[in-house]
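Researcher: Please predict.
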Amino acid sequence: MIAMSGGVDSSVAAHLLCEQGYACIGVTMKLFENDDIGAESNDVCCSLSSSLDARRVADKIGIPHYTFNFSRDFDERVIGKFVREYELGRTPNPCVDCNRFLKFERLFLTARQAGCDFIATGHYAGVGLDGQSGRYLLKKALDKAKDQSYVLYMLTQEQLARTLFPLGGMRKSEVREVASAYGFANAQKPESQDICFVPDGRYADFIERRTGRKSEPGDFIDESGRAIGRHKGLIRYTIGQRRRLGIARPERFFVRGKNPLDNTVTLCGEESLCSKTLVAEDFNTISCEIPDAPLRVRAMTRYRQRECLATAVWTSQDRVVVTFDEPQRLAAPGQAVVLYETGREDVVLGGGTVSATDDD
């Protein structure tokens, strides 16, 4: 069962699997109605237009195609969590949650129930098997500029054993060439750059429409707790933000923290925007058993960020403290931290959700 979004990546992935002799079923997940998210265009991800694009490709390569309505799951487990986390002062990553709860939980279960041996997607990533440990590995894609292993860190051993990533060894340019060669109408379809259910990128407006509540203004405070201005609502800011603060002062200010208890946003200068340590909760360890000693790793706290050398210590089965060799730009609570091995640089060691930094 291959997840087909209507984009060029999943279309080519389906074509490649058919060429390799797999019997494929194409599936598009219906996740929302455009009216539910306030989208004016019908060309956003998971829209009716995208489903039709997926069906056209499925018809062209000769495989059945179905659309499954997973909108209730998506609403509860992705959109609902996104809204709750923002209101709690955190910065969630809905793409991680969509992969976790929809593609590799809900769709994975559906594939098993349908008698499919594997689930496949158009992600740029790879799956390998460690011959010594017998563990399945999540690996980086060949095309490092497109690698999506960062948003797949939650995959379990069971899921990796039954997952195919046909594009892991290809570059994006090659994928488009294949699509053009076979006459796929979506060969040059542009990629989605925004969160699918907030296509205009205005997160705060979406949250206020969703909840029916206006985010209350409050105080901007400096690191000493002194009020230095007024903010327009906690959900309109995220850690590290510099623009659109509305502070009429000669200094350059950045958002350093948000406190929903007293509705304050803490600002700081650029020199205070770094941290050496973070804590990750809900950590999923992939490539090894839970280490009982500190482990040298390469850490990434933002998608496509340069990896940084660090030491990781597991304080429980799913809680890890990461200490960087050099101070790094603050990671926003709610975002993902993904660790890669130092010896095998294309192997994901595991990942989790940032819960705190050393100054929290």
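Model: The radius of gyration is 21 Å.
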